[in-house]
From TrEMBL:
It comes from Halorubrum lacusprofundi (strain ATCC 49239 / DSM 5036 / JCM 8891 / ACAM 34). It comes from the Archaea. This is HIT-type domain-containing protein.
Amino acid sequence: MSVTGLCHVCEAAPASHTCPRCGRAVCEDHWDDDADICTACAQGQTQ
């Protein structure tokens, strides 16, 4: 799936992933490869 636009977290970098949990389009810096979700959702998992 093609992702276009800016990252919904930092609003500066181009988005390259879409989180299957929340639907955010995020850049590489805000993607958790281990969890395969965005870092915002990944942080919520550990709390």
